[in-house]
Amino acid sequence: MTVVVGYIPNKYGEAALEAGITEVRRRGGDLVVVNASRGDALVDQKYLGEAAVADLERRLVGAAVPASVRHGLGTDVADAIIDAATEVGAELVVIGVRRRSPVGKMLMGSVAQRVLLDAPCDVLAVKPD
């Protein structure tokens, strides 16, 4: 059983990561953490640098769950999460969600909405405490 987590370095990504680790411990299996960016912004603060990826990998080792990190540039974030879930035959995808106005969703799109609608498995949407 594999759990895929959509991860960004903020409180929403942290909530998703903690929930994903909890699910892997409860269900068994392994964790795949996805961090991606389309690369269309000069600096995407949601995209991890190499040092941050290494820190995340060390953190996952410390969490004592089998885990890997997929770090991609140049692809739609929702597609990266959905593709990872499809490739590994995920049982669950975990994403962090935040409140957005209807206009904000219309203008910017919603990664969470696309993952909820298009993921090939169950999706757990979590909010930070």
In a nutshell, what does this entry contain?
Helix content is 44%, strand content 23%. It has helices at 11-27, 50-62, 77-88, 102-108, 111-118; strands spanning 2-6, 30-37, 67-73, 92-96, 122-126.
Q: Could you name the key traits of this structure?
A:
129 residues, alpha/beta, 5-stranded parallel sheet, globular
Structural class: alpha/beta
Order of helices and strands: EHEHEHEHHE
Shape: globular
Helix content: 40-55%
**Quaternary:** single chain
Describe this structure in words.
It is globular, with a radius of gyration of 14 Å. The protein is built from five helices and five strands. A five-stranded parallel sheet has the order 3-2-1-4-5, with helices on both faces. The chain has helices at 11-27, 50-62, 77-88, 102-108, 111-118, and strands at residues 2-6, 30-37, 67-73, 92-96, 122-126. It has 129 residues and is α/β, with parallel strands linked by helices. The longest helix has 17 residues, at 11-27. It starts with a strand and ends with a strand. The mean pLDDT is 90. α1 (11-27) links the parallel β1 (2-6) and β2 (30-37). α3 (77-88) packs parallel to α5.
Protein topology:
Layout: E1 2-6, H1 11-27, E2 30-37, H2 50-62, E3 67-73, H3 77-88, E4 92-96, H4 102-108, H5 111-118, E5 122-126
Parallel strand pairs: 1-2, 1-4, 2-3, 4-5
Helix pairs in contact: 3-5
